[in-house]
Design brief:
Length: 350
Amino acid sequence: AGLAGAAAAAEPMTAAEAEQLAADEGLALVRSSQSQTGFKGVSKRGGRFAAVFGSHQSEEYLGMAATAEEAALLYARHVGAEASAAAAAAAEAEPMTAAEAKQLAADEGLTLIPSSQSQTGFTGVSKHGSRFQAVFGHAHLGMAATAEEAALLIARHLGAEASAAAAAAADGREEAKRKREEDAEDKAVAAAEKRAAAAAKKQAQKEAEKARREAQKEAQKEWLRRSQEELAARQRHAAEEQKRLLREAAERRDRELGREAAQRPGTSAPAAAELDPLATEQPIGAIIERALSSTCVYRRLGVPPHAPREACRASFLQLARRLHPDKCSHPHAKEAFAAVEEAFRAVEQA
């Protein structure tokens, strides 16, 4: 009662002041991995810390403090310098490793309870700073250096049979969860494959339709090209045939004119040819066709072969008047005029 009253009346002690007082008095603050506060015999109550010595059945209340270190100082003063030093030395022993915790569980016939829902991997185990807290229901079972050691505290709390059952249930839940995840993944993969197959089919149809349209266009182009070639060939054939017919008609006329001139009394063939207007008065197309297609200079001039120069000159002058580019609008008038002029020069030079 006197210690409690003194603690309440004194000015609140800081953690550093409590540690310094313990050192000055030759005491050791006893740390504990089993306590949430980090000190043996110290528990948090509301916003303050209680110092207790003994077990739950026969605990001795030592007082309240503002910090865990101050409450630990109350505990160290109660047990004395020698006992507090021994307890502190025991608490500072090498912490239990994960492998050691698993081995201890196996030796004691206990089962560590796994959990995929916990960040630590074990049911009831959570991380606080660099340490791990073990809690089952509303019971705080202590702090540990590793998650496995904290899981061992829970397994010890439950016992061999209950920890094994809990672990089996957890494994069942994990297996069910894994199966659900696998099923979901299989469904997702199947759906993705189905979508990919549908997309590929659609793309193939589009490409096939595109290829069909392109082939149709090419076929139309080929048909148009062949039609144009056939039309051009027919036009060339018709033009050649027309030239041949005109040439044959002109040759027949020349022969008839020669025969008629020979049959006229007192008229020579050249004179008759000179007086005959047919050679120069034919349609302009026929004249141009004869001028451009004939290789005979007399025929170009429209006179019988070896006609006198006067007759050739008279025919040339008439043809020149009709074929001159300034007077004739026919597209081949210039070429025909040049051919007739060339023929006349050849006759004069003969």
